[in-house]
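Regression test attached.
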Amino acid sequence: MTVRIGVVVFPGSNRDIDAVNALQVAGAEPVILWHEQASLEGAAAVILPGGFAYGDYLRAGVIARFSPVMRSVAAFAADGGLVLGICNGFQVLTEAHLLPGALLRNRGLRFVSRQVALVAERHDTPFTRAIGDSRPLRMPVAHGEGCFYADAATLDDLERDGQVLFRYARADGSIAGETDDPANPNGSMRAIAGVMNAAGNVAGLMPHPETAVEAVLGSADGLPIIRSFVESAAQRAAGPAPVAVGAR
Amino acid sequence: MTLAEPVTPPVEEPLHRRLGVTDEELDAIRDRLGGRDPNDLELAMFSVMWSEHCSYKSSKPLLRSLPTAGEGVVAGPGENAGVISIGGGLAVAFKIESHNHPSAVEPYQGAATGVGGILRDIFTMGARPIAVLDALRFGDPSSARTRHLVGGVVGGVGGYGNCVGVPTVGGELVFDPSYEGNPLVNVMAIGLLEERLLTRAAAPGPGNLAILFGSTTGRDGIGGASVLASATFADDDPSKRPSVQVGDPFAEKLLIEASLELIERGLVEGLQDLGAGGITCATSETADRAGTGIRVDLEAIPRREPGLEPFEVMISESQERMLAIVRPEREPDVRAVCERWGLPVAVIGTVTADGDITIVDGGREIARIPASALTSDAIVHERIASPPAHRRLAPAPGAVDARDSTLPERGMDPGAVLLALIGSPNLANRRPVFEQYDSTVQANTVAGAGHGAAVIRIKGTTKALVAATDANQAVGAIDPWLGAALSVAEATRNVSITGARPLGVTNCLNFGDPTRPAAFWQLSEAVRGLGDACRALGLPVTGGNVSLYNESPSGAIAPTPEIGVVGLLEDVGLVVGPAFEAEGDTILLVGHATPGLAGSEYATLAGTAAEDGPPALDLALEAATQAFVREAAGRGLLASAQDVSAGGLAVALAESALWADDEHGIGARVRLGVANSPAVDLFGESPSRIVVSTRARYAPALALLARHHGLPVEELGTVGGDRLVVELAGAGATGAAEERGSRVADALDVPLSELRHAWETGLSRALGWEGR
């Protein structure tokens, strides 16, 4: 049986189309979750897609966290449910304090839309377990506020606890610099592109794996990330207790 | 009625003249009102609807000559967008439109609302917008004014398109001194629809309700069509600023989803977006198309602010609004959909059988005009066309002119010329601009901004749509017929080289003041060129837009017929790109160079007005060239295909080399028989030429196919290495130059690293964006 995965749609979400497509390519059944609804409709996991939720007029993600669906998502996450935020979804998760850090305006102060490379720090999480090798993954970024920021102590903790999932990389796989390195599209601190929470069931990243799931679109490197998520969700839907995969 | 402050001049002219209505037009208005004078509100409504922008009163007689019929055309000119069937129950909707004058006054909002307006034209038809292309033209990139405009316009296009979730996949960015006082912002949008959902912008069925939904109505954009779009203007006139509309992409995103849901559920009889002319335009056009009238209850229109005059409500161009024609029993469902998307919704009127637009305020009738008088029966002016006294003509086909070796004669190395060209503002990589646009949202982008054509796959099928825009203003300034025909040739060629079959053409005609005979002659010649080229290539013109009065104190713009083309690729797996693919592949040139450097980037660089005229265009040869490349692509013979256009053959080769990958590229070594002169053969921009690469074993078959299509074909050399080397061979190479006693290098030889540096940094350098 195919696993049902919820895709939250805020007014202003626009990569919901991409997320639905990626889930279908990965063999899952996407379920649209409207922002005003409290029910997650039995979804085994939830994606918060990219876009400009509620217009992002005040600050990206700041309004979205007060929506009815987000209250349910927070409860779902507290129960160990799998949640993945992509781009605007990542911003919403940090605003909702479900993920550490914050996403600031790109250091170049401009919207950046281009292909980037990233490397996964870990291959043993619900979000990365289907990534076979350590070669850099190519996928697009498209955002104006994607500079990952946290204070030095928090960054040290994240690295120590294995909560850094992805970093921007150069074509040869080496980690991008923090400033003046085109491989780091937004100037994220320590080139961090994606993180997860301490419990290991909530993750967010700025690049778009859901848009890079078919070779015809230039890259299918995002598919292992989506597949990791779908397989982990299916396993949790089938089996009883989630396994802690957080801190190491 | 009182007029809004900014429009009131110190000297009291009659109201109609202040609104841009001539005495002759006032007489024509009286004719259509049964001899009576219009009241002030009616006059305001006429002034907007009879503006050049809404009425096409100068261009209509010319546009009638364009071919509009074609295979699969489901909607043509007169609708909000052209629609062409692509099989399998699907159709593509597309249109290009200008937002030049608003962008000159307030570049960010002008460009943003340009994107918003053209998107509404698409989803009004029942199509989901899937791509935007923007064609931008500015003056000198080093001037403070141009930099201000570029920053604002690019920010506006991105700010709106990125938020609304439609990928910006292509377009142009061109600098030419003629745009210094009057930039051009032309935006093309493409949508995909199920044919059964095609929706007309008509108001059928007396008794049906007119429902306005989306944003509320305010004072922004008062008289945008008449004040801004239909008159020349001075630089930075602050009194024009209230005429610029303000965009809200978030509201637009909600409007798209609500409109498509209403259509999908069959809840509307007709749908029209509110653009130029606001409620006046939407009601009169929908009524006229259905042969009905609409009775509008002014008080029912939701306002953004109190104290609006009736005329302000009726002509406001507040953005993100839609007019739906709805059967009374479906009103609750329509309300529910709009409310779900958080959009204000109100019944503002009723469809009537009397054919009139009637405005009622507090139960009192305050205006009554036949809908047709505002739209299909608006005034038409027969303008006078007369060619300017001094102009150059294109040389006759086959004419040879040897005076065009300017730079080699000066002893300049052709490699240095190529580096200068590829780093020049018009040829350098557009990445610094295009990277500010989200080009991948919706997960359909196969090839995005920067390539000659954008490729958008159609989910759930093997097909893809291919789109390109082009305008050749440099040649158009010399010969507007040729400029327009070349624009069509290049835009369609860019679509064909991917393997796609062009389906139809949309156009945005940017010209000067039509009351000047020389400017009207340019327009009429360009329309003739557009029609001739489309007929030769077998393509329908499915709609577009005319932008006149593009003049400023520094003069008129170069005639700019912006052409948008959409094509269909049956198998996206066979798509051909411009980049060299593999070392050892054979490079061939299909077509041959003909004389004429006028209007070329080379001529601009050389700083000479080349006196030999622009190169000639043979439309039959162009059609054969495109048929060949489509067939070659369909048979899987091509590794790459790149058309020869701006910068000539040398730039085409360099781009194929640089596109090969983001870091290094793949070089090439070729040998070019010089038939004309090194300048013409390397840098000339004569049309109907394509550089292709193919596996060596396919080269003979490819050459044979070209000859079968009656085309000249020459094997140039081989893909490989980290340099671009072009050896010049033949009498024209060194011999002719030696006779003139000048030194000419016999080869162009440049490392790819130098080419890439020039190409990648050229635009940022030109705009002063280094280090950002």
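Expected vs. actual: identical. The helical segments of chain A are 16-25, 68-78, 88-95, 152-160, 223-238.
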